[in-house]
Amino acid sequence: MSDRPVPHPDQLIVARLTGAAQRHAPWREPTEAETATAVEELREIAGDRGDLLAEVAGLLIGFYRGTMEELKAQAAAQYCIVAGADADLIPRWIEVGRCRAAGAGQTPYTGPEANEPERPRRTAKRHKRLASSWRR
After folding, report:
1. For 52-98, what is each residue's pLDDT tens digit?
2. Are 62 and 102 in contact (CB under 8 A)?
3. Using an 8 Å Cβ cutoff, are 71 and 28 in contact?
4. Which of 32, 58, 72, 133 is most buried, most CB within 10 Å of its CB?
C-alpha cells in the first residue's frame, strides 16, 4: 500500500478548474464566445461551488501577478468570476497565491552540503604542481 496521502475531493476539483480555466484563456482579451465556452465548462466542473471558483480565481491572480503570464491568468480568473466565484473570498486567495509565488521563487533547502563553499577543481596544471611537491 502507498504512504501517499489521498487528495481531498475539493483539491481534485480545484485542479480540474485550474486546468480548464488556463486551457481556455488566451494571451489577449477573450471574446464573448470564448468566455461563454469556458464558463460553461467551469460551471459543469464546479457545480454550485462558488468557493472553489473563488479559490482558483484568486490563486491565478495572486500567483501570476507581475509575471509574463499575468494577462493569461487574468483571463482565466475572469472566467471563474463569470462562472460564479464567490467575490468575497477572492482577496484571501489572491494573498495565498502571492505567498505561493514568493515561496516558489526561493531556492529550496537541499541540506548542509549545499551551503558549503565550492572546492577548487583540480586542473591538470594544478595537479602537476601538487604532484611535483609530493616528490620532494
Report:
1. 999 999 999 999 999 999 999 999 999 999 999 999 999 999 999 99
2. no
3. yes
4. 58
pLDDT for position 62 = 96
Grid-cell match 604532484, residue found = 131
Cα distances (angstroms) measured from residue 86 to each of 1, 19, 52, 78, 129: 39, 19, 8, 12, 71
CA distances from 28 to 34, 67, 81 (A): 11, 15, 17
CA dist 122 and 135 (Å) reads 18
Question: 114: exposed, middle or buried (C-beta count within 10 Å: 0-12, 13-18, 19+)?
Answer: exposed
**And the C-alpha cell for 19?**
486546468
